[in-house]
Each structure stands twice: as structure tokens, then as C-alpha cells.
Write a structure and sequence with these properties.
about 350 residues, alpha/beta, four-stranded parallel beta sheet, globular, binds N-carbamoyl-L-aspartate
Length: about 350
């Protein structure tokens, strides 16, 4: 999706300009009254979203669906390869030819990097990438950056010169792959990459960051990486992408952020983020629940922002931003418990 969003796919963050990102954010701001259930709009009345998730998902799938519903559209879901005709040997391209006849826009998550691009090449309607293998997760990156901006604004700060620590599985984490590229649109970002050597950020991403004039520091120990950060972005070991469960198990619980470590190594007010889900099983706990009451823990604000960003993307892609102001009314139901 480039400058002119209408009818465009969003497959990667590559090709997004800073101006385009800012457009998404300003439309996301317009969505707050709807997401907070103060106002109702029906600008997408009659439109259908094909929400196709061929990998586990809670937030991404449900927030895409709710975002479409909040704009007045209907959602049809396909979940799991085993319940679709892909299990009968149908190609992604044929599935795309058929399903794009039933939908106005499609969101797809797939375990294979590049599969969503292939699907999009045969689709007659715009396709938004909900995560393709270890490759990219562009809407997560947009909601992460939107969250970073809001968290920084609350402290009276902007994005330029931001210092961010990304910790955990930087090799297989598609959210990280998209986030570093989108952050690089802003000047002089300082990246602190904290991971075991085997789970380091793939070199191509690192090279691109350096080529863009950003500072990149690799750390194999937690303490040194956390010290210099304004934001710490924690990630889960992407077990499902490892060649074997035994290999993934070697990295479980290796890097953890908890209250004790935060107090010892992070500057006060260091914002804590995580794309979620966090692995709360014993032995993993990369982000401990003992930080849950900390005001700098932004993970649930981050998840809430996902609805705003996805509403904005649908409104831009289906070209209804201009129609919003003519199609607004107050909600009729009880909403007092929400806030
Ligand atoms: C992420 C994903 O699926 O890539 N989750 C999400 O969409 N919020 C991160 C993860 O699964 O660890």
C-alpha cells in the first residue's frame, strides 16, 4: 500500500513512506470515538471482510474482525488449513480467485513467508497481510509505532532519536522484522538488539538500518541492552518456527523481563511493549506478570490500538474516510462499564 491507499494491498511495510504512515495514524485518531463506543458509524454497511487465518491468532484475527464490524461491515472467517479446501490440494491462487469474488477486502495470515503475496497476486480485492511466516507483520508494526508515538507523546517526547531495545527471538519474530523497518523511517533511531547469537536479527535488516544512518548495537546480555533504552520491546520465542521443539526449548526463559530486572537495569519510565501473546507457561515467562501493575507496561494499550489502526486501514483501503463525518450517531446501549 503506497501513498494512495484506496484499493491497494498491504503486504509489507516496504514501500510505506513516513507520510503514508502518518496518514494511517491521523485516520486512526479519528476512530477513537467508535472504538470507545461513544459513536456508531455504518460507512462499511454491506461490505464483507474475508478474514482468513491459517495460523493460531487471537488479537490479530479478532481485532481485524471487530475493526470491520465497528465500521458497519460483515466478517466471514476461515480458520485453519484443515477446514478449508487448501487441505484438498487447492492452490492459494485458486482460493484467492474464488474468495475475492465473495469479499470486498481480505486479511490473511499464513505460516509460509511470501504466501500472502502469492494469494494477493491472484486476488481481485485488496489483501492485508496478517502475518506471513517469519517474514512480516505490517499491521502489527503500524500499531506498535502508533503506540510508541502515543506513549512518547504522553511524556512530551517525539520519535526522532528514539532508543529502543528489542529482546528475545529476533530471528523468527516477524513483528520485529516489520517494526525495525518502519522505525527506520524516522531519523537517528538507536537500536539495541538483545538476543542469543543464534536468534539475532537477520543481517539484511541490520545492514539496512546501518545504511539508513541508524545506530545498531548487538547485545547477548540483558543488562547492557536495557540500560540505554526508552522503550523495551519484548518478544516470545517463536517455537513454531524452529526446526524442532527440542531446539526451541534451548531458548525458553533465557531472556526474561520482570520487576527485579526492570528496577535494576531500566531507566525510570522505560516503556514496556510486547506484541503478545506472552508465554506465561512455567519456564518461559519472557515478560513476567509481576510487572502487570506498572504504569509503563503498555502491552494492553498496544492491543487496544490494534483496533484503531485496523479500522484506519480498512477506511483508507475502501476509501470511506471522507464519508465518516456524514455517518455518525451516538451509541444507544449502556457503555458505562467500559471506561
Ligand atoms: C505476533 C505474531 O503472530 O507474529 N502476535 C501478534 O500478532 N500479536 C507475535 C507472536 O506470536 O509472538
Amino acid at each position: 500500500m503506497v501513498k494512495d491507499f484506496a484499493g491497494q494491498h498491504l503486504l509489507s511495510v516496504q514501500g510505506l513512506s513516513r507520510e503514508a504512515v502518518e496518514t494511517v495514524f491521523s485516520v486512526a485518531d479519528l476512530m477513537v470515538p467508535f472504538a470507545e463506543r461513544r459513536m456508531v458509524t455504518r460507512v462499511l454497511e454491506g461490505a464483507i471482510l474475508g478474514n482468513m487465518f491459517f495460523e493460531p491468532s487471537t488479537r490479530t484475527r479478532v481485532s481485524f474482525g471487530c475493526a470491520f464490524n465497528l465500521l458497519g461491515g460483515e466478517v466471514r472467517e476461515t480458520i485453519g488449513v484443515e477446514s478449508s479446501s487448501l487441505a484438498k490440494g487447492e492452490s492459494l491462487e485458486d482460493t484467492a480467485r474464488v474468495l475475492s469474488g465473495y469479499s470486498d477486502v481480505i486479511v490473511m495470515r499464513h505460516p509460509e513467508g511470501g504466501a500472502v503475496d502469492r494469494f494477493a497476486s491472484a486476488s481481485r480485492v485488496p489483501v492485508l497481510n496478517g502475518g506471513d511466516g517469519a517474514r512480516e507483520h505490517p499491521t502489527q508494526a503500524l500499531l506498535d509505532l502508533y503506540t510508541i508515538r502515543r506513549e512518547r507523546a504522553a511524556l512530551g517526547l517525539g520519535l526522532d532519536g528514539l532508543r529502543i531495545a528489542l529482546m528475545g527471538d529476533l530471528r523468527y519474530g516477524r513483528a520485529v522484522h516489520s517494526l525495525v523497518q518502519i522505525l527506520a523511517l524516522y531519523p537517528a533511531i538507536e537500536f539495541h538488539l538483545i538476543s542469543p547469537p543464534e536468534l539475532a536479527l537477520p543481517e539484511a535488516y541490520e545492514d539496512a538500518l546501518r545504511a539508513g544512518g541508524h545506530q545498531v548495537h548487538r547485545h547477548h546480555a540483558l543488562a547492557s541492552g536495557l540500560q540505554a533504552a526508552d522503550i523495551v520491546y519484548v518478544t516470545r520465542t517463536q517455537e513454531e518456527r524452529f526446526p524442532s521443539p527440542e531446539e526451541a526449548a534451548r531458548y525458553r526463559g533465557l531472556f526474561r523481563l520482570n520487576q527485579e530486572i526492570y528496577t535494576a537495569h531500566c531507566a525510570p519510565n522505560t516503556v514496556i511493549m510486547h506484541p503478545l501473546p506472552r508465554d506465561s507457561r512455567a519456564g518461559a515467562q519472557e515478560l513476567d506478570a509481576d510487572l502487570d501493575a506498572h504504569p509503563a507496561l503498555a502491552i494492553f494499550r498496544q492491543a487496544d490500538n490494534g483496533v484503531l489502526i485496523r479500522m484506519a486501514l480498512f477506511a483508507l483501503c475502501l476509501d470511506v474516510v471522507g464519508a465518516l463525518e456524514k455517518d455518525v450517531r451516538p451509541v444507544r446501549w449502556y457503555t458505562g462499564g467500559r471506561r
